[in-house]
Amino acid sequence: MASRWAVLSDVHSNYYALKAVLADARRKRVDQVLFLGDAVGYGPEPHRCLPLLQKEVSAGAWVLGNHDEALRLLHGTATGNQHEPPSEPPRPVQWQIGTREDTWTALRKNYEILRHASAGELVEHLAAHGSRHRVGSRVSLVHGGHRHGEPTVTPTETALQVRDEFSFLDNEEKGIDVLLLGHTHRPTAVRQTTAETKRFEVIEIEPARIVEIEDRRWMLNPGSVGQPRDGDRRASYLILDLGLNEFELHRVEYDVHRTQKRMEELGLHESLIQRLDPGRRNRFG
């Protein structure tokens, strides 16, 4: 199996960010692309993101996020000849994405776009993915976390949470020493302090700085392609090289204002439009 992977998460229907990240990864000569979920939600172009992900993500190396799961559930509750979604989010959908009006409006719009673009084929392809996946002998993929039995919504970010994740994996998937997950929209690295202990520590990571994976266990979160929440508007992803036992965080500029303009045209909430660029106080453009 090829060992140099681009690790992506949380695209959220941001086509221009996804396109820029994949182009950057190709320039850096990755062998395969892994995707940690949330292809849809928040953004304006799920019908362009899903086919691109289908083309680029390696076979099987794609897990569902909570917005993906919510869209799958919404597809199951849509009624009528046009598969019209309900006006209010059903309770299972609320469990995945919460009750905020802006989030629900975006998901509903994403569903309508996908139904119109592909008569449901893209939704069904998305829904066919699982919520967790193992790659080779060493790597586990999940959007949020395994330990609570709710892999799309469980947050995993602190050293204690990572310790509990590996305790779960020791009982379920022995041999895992690299856990890849997303969901928080913030790039994060947590490592075992030594190979002999069950203690973990958060490691500061900076863009374009290679970090060696020593003989210990790691949790790596690539941050978000389509909606970073760490104060840096640039798209975020990781390159993980298990041949060299190292990883590197990358940040990529993209045409954020073009995405914002499309969001406005669709009538998505201003809160989501402005979230893409924390440094701006006024409307884009």
Mean pLDDT: 93
CATH class: Alpha Beta
| Helix fraction bin | 25-40%
Through-space gap between termini: 45 Å
Please summarize the sheet with the most strands. 6 strands, mixed
Overall number of structural domains: 1
Q: So, CATH architecture? A: 4-Layer Sandwich
Characterization of this structure:
The chain is α/β, with parallel strands linked by helices and 285 residues long. The protein has one domain (4-274): Metallo-dependent phosphatases (Purple Acid Phosphatase, chain A, domain 2), CATH 3.60.21. Helices cover 35% and strands 18% of the residues. It has nine helices and eleven strands. It has helices at 15-27, 46-56, 66-77, 91-97, 101-118, 121-127, 159-172, 256-266, 270-275; strands at residues 4-8, 32-35, 132-135, 139-142, 178-180, 187-192, 200-203, 211-212, 218-222, 235-241, 246-252. It has a six-stranded mixed sheet. A hairpin with a 3-residue loop joins strand 3 (132-135) and strand 4 (139-142). Helix 1 packs parallel to helix 2 (46-56), helix 3 crosses helix 5 and helix 3 (66-77) packs across helix 6. It is globular and about 55 Å long. The mean pLDDT is 93.
Question: Could you name the key traits of this structure?
Answer:
285 residues, Purple Acid Phosphatase, chain A, domain 2, 18% strand
Write the layout of secondary structure elements.
Layout: E1 4-8, H1 15-27, E2 32-35, H2 46-56, H3 66-77, H4 91-97, H5 101-118, H6 121-127, E3 132-135, E4 139-142, H7 159-172, E5 178-180, E6 187-192, E7 200-203, E8 211-212, E9 218-222, E10 235-241, E11 246-252, H8 256-266, H9 270-275
Parallel strand pairs: 1-2, 4-5, 5-9
Antiparallel strand pairs: 1-10, 3-4, 6-7, 6-9, 8-11, 10-11
Helix pairs in contact: 1-2, 3-4, 3-5, 3-6
